[in-house]
Amino acid sequence: MQTIFVQFKCRPGAAYTVANDLQESVEEMSEVYSTSGHYDLIAKFYLDDGRDLGHFVTEKLQVLDGVADTFTTVAFKAFGSAG
User: Fold this and answer.
1) Is residue 81 in a domain?
2) Which of 19, 23, 33, 51 is the most buried (most CB within 10 A)?
3) E strand intervals along 2-75
4) Where does the Transcription regulator AsnC/Lrp ligand binding domain lie (predicted)?
C-alpha cells in the first residue's frame, strides 16, 4: 500500500466544494483537512502498490471542479499515531 498526501490550492470560494467532492468521489481518500498558508486543503490517500501516482493525481484529483493546483508528497514510513 502506498500513502500519499496531496495539498490542494482551490479557486476562490471552492475549498468546501472540493473537500466534499473528494469525500464523495475518491474512495482512495482517507481524510481531508482545511489548512492555512499557500494551499487550502490537504488530503491523505492510500493507493495499491504499483498504482501509477501520476495518473491518479492528474486524472482523478486535478480534474475536480475548483482545483487550481496540487502538490503531492509521497510518504515512506509511519512512525506512530497521535493520541
Assistant:
1) no
2) 19
3) 2-10, 29-34, 41-47, 67-75
4) 6-77
